[in-house]
Specification:
The structure is a homodimer. Chain A is α/β, with parallel strands linked by helices. Chain A is about 45% helix and about 10% strand. Chain A contains 13 helices and nine strands. Chain A has a four-stranded parallel sheet with strand order 2-1-3-4, with helices on both faces. In chain A, α5 links the parallel β1 and β2. In chain A, α1 packs across α2, α5 crosses α13 and α8 runs parallel beside α9. The interface between A and B is large, with 49 and 50 residues. Chain A binds a DNA duplex through α2 and α4.
Chain lengths: ~325, ~325
DNA sequence: TTGTATGCGTTATCAT
DNA sequence: ATGATAACGCATACAA
């Protein structure tokens, strides 16, 4: 509504003086400063951020790109928004539904200067496509990738998965069945490596139980329980790709009258909210801290400063399913 | 980087012709249009949205204000973002942690034209404070309030709660204990009314069991189970304020070796994701649709058009806890 | 159909 | 210490 020129007229000074008085940059006499501030107050002045963005080329807005706002994505979003707001940035959402064309829209928003930088929580586009937009602003990824221009705040799940396996071993389980996620993900490969090394260490047969790929939903967990019943009930423990699969197993086992951990143990991964409600043993994945690091990387690039990253560690949360 | 003036020079036309060619508004010959488009493509032209916002006074950005991004808030956010993006709007997040000063920051963002409108998912500020910002743009609320300038997309929970009570009655429960949320919320009052009318209809004594106020977390649910054990085990069913409290009850009952629904029944409210995993009977609350309506109200005000709102209905989701 | 000129609100540069 | 002026990138009223 009311702009700097208006305030200048009312206060009997020039627009530049008003600008200086309000921003605190540059010289301005105490008397005029007081007058300007009073007039600005009186006429309900508020700076127009679009003009500022145009002038400076900086929006202090960051884009967050995710397929949907469920569970761990929400957790990441919360952590990222908190870090951003603490430092005077604002976060704009881009929800893709795993649709590549929507991902491009987010990239275009960066190109058109709607945001200063982007964080991709999860994506499907070719890495090279995303990388071609880094010339418009910093881009970081949560999803584990390796690219010279796109830092990723991933954690190597080798360590976390090893914690799960060691825990199961310590509890006496020897016939462990692995339920993996997407085989194309680097994290899946890390888990496979962890299991191989674990078996070698304790001289277990890695092929004693079959493994399963591409699991991720509660329904997959339910499926696994039925598989267990119908195929000799061999495994005495399941190490799962995430808490959702584990939750599906727990729910289905209960419906079928099976007892956990007596019939078989289940270990989740992530430690989402509902893991507590289901009393699920799981591996805590510090999503909040990863989000904070994602922001720090972005900020350090935008403001050209060095910022420390918080070290990240998995840990076991033991509950009643093991 | 490259702007309209630059393209104009390269294409041998005036900036306004470029503007017209790119926007499709106004007359421009086919030949020049082709030339301009080719040059724009070649020089990687992208319009600067900040300049556009400054010029037009419209950002096509909406602010969403919420305390944190957990559970039903995430659900609402997802629905709102989807609706917004489908219509060419973008959503910026303001996370308040229930801190009033953070809510003011969101209001200020509206005043400073960083966003065109705001939706308050939940808030603590005085309604009059929020209302004083409606002169800067539309503001709508999910939280149930009544104010002439701030539409709310609430649903009257009288209906939903009645569905829960009728279901419990039909399943044979007669000693129903109400676990309410914050007593200052209008929705709590609606539920109290629903229970009163329900008791009258079936000639039940409304005071047969005590009611509880201000519950909301799983820990409150755990507390309720212990209360039940220590105080004569009177109620045969609990109608809870939300799924989180219900989940706490289910988890604690399991730990204590109680059987649900034999020892007592539990009915949740909301039908969040984990309700399915816990096999919780609950009342489905169409959050997505409410978010869509919130967006429609905002859009109708911004674009000054009439938009229909989707009718909303609760329904029962019967699972194994009743 | 096209081009010129102006303004959106702000800040930075440069005189004064 | 202060003010005039230009510039950020775009759209549009108006003239041609």
């Amino acid at each position: 509504m009311t702009n700097i020129k208006e305030i200048a007229k009312r206060a009997g000074v020039s627009p530049s003086t008003v600008s200086r008085a309000l921003s605190g940059k540059g010289y301005v006499s105490e008397e005029k400063k007081r007058r300007v501030l009073a007039v600005a107050e009186e006429f309900d002045y508020a700076p127009n951020l679009n003009a500022l963005s145009l002038k400076t080329g900086i929006t202090r807005r960051l884009g967050l790109v995710a397929p949907a706002f469920i569970e761990s994505v929400s957790l990441f979003t919360g952590g990222f928004v908190r870090a951003a707001e603490e430092n005077g940035y604002t976060v704009t959402l881009f929800m893709t539904g795993s649709d590549v064309s929507k991902e491009v829209e987010a990239l275009e928003a960066l190109r058109r200067k709607q945001v200063d930088a982007l964080v991709f929580v999860m994506f499907k586009s070719d890495l090279s496509l995303i990388a071609s937009y880094t010339k418009y602003g910093p881009i970081v990824s949560w999803q584990r990738i390796i690219h010279p221009n796109i830092p990723s705040v991933f954690m190597n799940q080798y360590d976390g998965y090893t914690i799960a396996l060691e825990h199961l071993y310590a509890r006496g389980y020897r016939r462990i069945c692995n339920i993996y996620g997407s085989p194309t993900r680097l994290n899946t490969q890390s888990r496979i490596d962890a299991f191989r090394d674990f078996c070698a260490k304790y001289e277990l047969d890695p092929l004693a139980c079959p493994s399963f790929d591409d699991m991720g939903n509660p329904s997959h967990g339910e499926q696994m329980v039925r598989w267990w019943l119908e195929n000799g009930q061999i495994p005495d423990a399941f190490a799962t790709t995430n808490d959702r699969v584990a939750a599906g197993m727990v729910a289905e086992a209960r419906r079928l009258g099976l007892r956990i951990p007596e019939d078989f143990a289940v270990c989740g991964f992530d430690n989402l909210d509902f893991a507590d409600m289901l009393d699920l043993t799981t591996i805590h994945y510090p999503v909040n801290e990863q989000a904070g690091n994602a922001f720090s990387i972005i900020r350090s690039r935008i403001e050209e400063i060095e910022l420390p990253l918080r070290p990240l560690k998995f840990h076991l949360v033991q509950r009643s399913t093991t």
